[in-house]
């Protein structure tokens, strides 16, 4: 045996006494016996714990050495998360369709714009359906020959969407019953009347528009009644004059 080999063997024996050499702690925190054995699940768990501890220590050290850089990296990470969330919301929104659940109109008459949106038609297309009697409509304008104010019966709009016509809508009395189910029955010696605010709501117009109709002598208030301030200040309108005017304004 050479002198160099003899010295190496003596040093090894001094560092690892007999019977303890394989169990000596090696660099990295593992014994020689552990390094020679295959890894088991328990050892993997220990390795993970050690790795997490070391990574955490490195991060703390990095924060101490470069606090500004760490803050910048944290800010960039937060921004990336926010941008990703917004893009995810945009993706979810783009997957939505225009199909809506069945909508129940709260008023019996709807505007031209509502009919155009519901039927996906231009004004000319809706007017063609009105001329064809597929839709029941009224011109409620105070100036009959100037600018039309079209209101369409919601029931006829629904019937057209279902591709079915209701012959009962050809009777003007049935149409009035849909628009004003609360209207009193005209009786001899008793004036049938309704509040202007109620009529405006049912016709889907402003109360001021009803007053314009009164000024134009299309309809008339109950004799002796007039507008007053306050929530209960709406005057009564002669219902018979209203029905006669609506019958003239029915678009045929």
Describe the overall structure:
The chain has 252 residues and is an alpha+beta fold. It has a domain at 109-251. The protein is 52% helix and 9% strand. It has 11 helices and 8 strands. A hairpin with a 3-residue loop joins strand 1 and strand 2 (30-31). Helix 3 (41-65) packs across helix 4 and helix 9 packs across helix 10 (207-215). The longest helix is centred in the N-terminal third of the chain and has 28 residues, at 67-94. It is elongated, with a radius of gyration of 43 Å. Mean pLDDT is 77; it is low at 1-8, 19-30 and 90-96.
Provide keyphrases for this structure:
252 residues; alpha+beta; 11 helices
Q: Quick gist of this model?
A:
The chain is α+β, with helices and mostly antiparallel strands and 252 residues long. 52% of the residues lie in helices and 9% in strands. The protein is elongated, with a radius of gyration of 43 Å.
Number of helices: 11
What is the percentage of strand-forming residues? 5-15%
Give the low-confidence spans.
1-8, 19-30, 90-96
User: Biggest sheet, strands in spatial order?
Assistant: 3-5-4-8
> What structural class should be given to the helix and strand makeup?
alpha+beta
Using only CA atoms, what is the Rg?
A: 43 Å
Mean pLDDT: 77
Q: What sequence of helices (H) and strands (E) makes up the elements? A: HEEHHHEHHEEHHEHHEHE
Based on CA inertia axes, which overall geometry fits? Answer: elongated
CA distance, first residue to last residue: 124 Å
Summarize the amount of helix as a percent range. 40-55%
Main sheet, how many strands, which sense, barrel? 4 strands, antiparallel
- Number of extended strands: 8
């Amino acid at each position: 045996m050479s002198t160099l080999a003899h010295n190496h063997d003596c040093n090894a024996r001094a560092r690892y006494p007999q019977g303890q050499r394989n169990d000596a702690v090696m660099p990295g925190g593992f014994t020689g016996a552990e390094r020679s054995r295959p890894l088991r699940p328990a050892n993997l768990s220990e390795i993970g714990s050690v790795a997490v501890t070391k990574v955490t220590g490195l991060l703390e050290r990095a924060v101490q050495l470069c606090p500004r850089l760490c803050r910048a990296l944290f800010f960039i990470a937060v921004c990336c998360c926010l941008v990703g969330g917004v893009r995810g919301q945009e993706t979810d929104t783009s997957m939505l369709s225009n199909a809506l659940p069945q909508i129940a109109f709260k008023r019996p008459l709807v505007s031209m714009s509502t009919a155009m949106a519901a039927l996906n038609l231009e004004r000319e297309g809706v007017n063609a359906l009105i001329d064809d009697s597929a839709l029941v409509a009224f011109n409620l304008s105070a100036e009959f020959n100037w600018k039309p104010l079209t209101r369409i019966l919601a029931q006829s709009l629904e019937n057209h969407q279902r591709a079915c016509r209701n012959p009962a809508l050809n009777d003007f009395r049935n149409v009035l019953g849909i628009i004003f189910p609360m209207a009193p029955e005209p009786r001899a010696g008793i004036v049938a009347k309704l509040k202007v605010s109620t009529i405006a709501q049912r016709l889907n117009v402003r109360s001021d528009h009803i007053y314009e109709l009164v000024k134009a002598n299309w309809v008339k208030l109950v004799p002796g009644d007039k507008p007053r301030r306050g929530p209960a200040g709406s005057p009564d309108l002669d219902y018979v004059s209203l029905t006669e005017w609506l019958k003239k304004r029915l678009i045929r």
